[in-house]
Design brief:
It catalyses: 2 ATP = 3',3'-c-di-AMP + 2 diphosphate. Belongs to the adenylate cyclase family. DacA/CdaA subfamily. The chain has a seven-stranded mixed β-sheet, sandwiched between helices. The chain has two domains: about 100 residues, no CATH class; about 150 residues, DNA integrity scanning protein, DisA, N-terminal domain (YojJ-like (1). The chain is built from eleven helices and seven strands. A hairpin with a 2-residue loop joins strand 3 and strand 4. By secondary structure, the chain is α+β, with helices and mostly antiparallel strands. The longest helix is centred in the last third of the chain and has 26 residues.
């Protein structure tokens, strides 16, 4: 047993353990970042290649092992070239997240988001400034974020109001909020074709309901004609909300007392799903 441990960890077991922990941390961060992007499928493919390389080397399949080795060697260069924008964004997000952890205040980010949304919606409602704001939940909204203008900015009520000022470049379309940041503005959302929607509701409401039919996002609407505030969650529409009702609905759908703890649990679940999804998909795709 001691000899096996010496062979595995070497003469400096603490350094070897630290080395393994660092590698696992890097893999963990890659999975966390990729869970909402097309890079997740790429990581699964890389994992399969590494597993195949390990088994081919263990069994002694020299030709396959050599081919996989060449694929891995040149594949790293190809991935850097093909995914250069994603890699740059990942590094930016990593630096930003580390900075947030060291400088963040004790205030719950959900509470700050609710305050900014409430302030901006009430301001625009009073002045009949049309607005459409979607907040990403579990289902990723990258498909719709890509249709707009990328902002990746902090959320403030002033910025939200300025975006929807009439005749400005970004006022037409939806603002999408992801991970407590404004991901993009002037985004296109899918229009609902439901015949149950009242005829007096316009394109903004149809877009909000359309997004609610295909995702679990929360969408906020300010009517340009009446100034009425509405909220769509899934395919349910809450219309003509006053200040108290608006605050109550925002708290119901957005407030999270344990935001950081829930995020860590979700990240752990994503790692579990990453290693099991290939096995599950093999059995599940047969019925499609």
């Amino acid at each position: 047993m001691v000899d096996w441990l010496n062979r595995f960890f070497g003469t400096q077991p603490l350094v070897s353990i630290l080395d393994i922990l660092i590698v696992w941390f890097i893999v963990y961060q890659l999975i966390v970042y990729a869970r909402k992007t097309r890079a997740m499928n790429l990581l699964q493919g890389v994992a399969l290649i590494l597993v195949a390389k390990f088994f081919s080397q263990t069994i002694g399949l020299q030709t396959i092992d050599w081919l996989l080795g060449q694929l891995i060697s040149w594949g790293v260069v190809a991935l850097i070239i093909l995914f250069q924008p994603e890699l740059r964004k990942a590094l930016e997000n990593l630096g930003r997240s580390l900075f947030r952890r060291t400088t963040s205040s004790s205030r719950n980010p959900s509470e700050q988001l609710i305050d900014d949304l409430e302030t901006s919606l009430l301001y625009m409602s009073k002045r009949k400034i049309g607005a459409l704001i979607s907040i990403e939940a579990e289902n990723p909204l990258d498909e719709y974020i890509s249709t707009g203008t990328t902002l990746d900015s902090n959320i403030t009520s002033q910025l939200l109001i300025n975006i929807f000022i009439p005749n400005t470049p970004l006022h037409d379309g939806a603002v999408i909020i992801s991970d407590f940041r404004i991901a993009a503005a002037s985004c296109y959302l899918p229009l609902s074709e439901s015949k149950l929607i009242p005829k007096e509701l316009g394109t903004r409401h149809r877009a909000a309901i359309g997004l609610g039919e295909v995702t679990d996002a929360l969408t906020l609407i300010v009517s340009e004609e009446t100034g009425a505030i509405s909220i769509v969650k899934n395919d349910f529409l809450h219309r003509d909300l006053n200040r108290e009702d608006l605050r109550a609905k925002l708290m119901e759908y957005l407030y999270d007392e344990n935001n950081e703890d829930n995020t860590d649990q979700d990240n752990f679940q994503m790692i579990k799903d990453f290693f099991t999804s290939n096995l599950i998909s093999k059995g599940g795709n047969q019925g499609e």
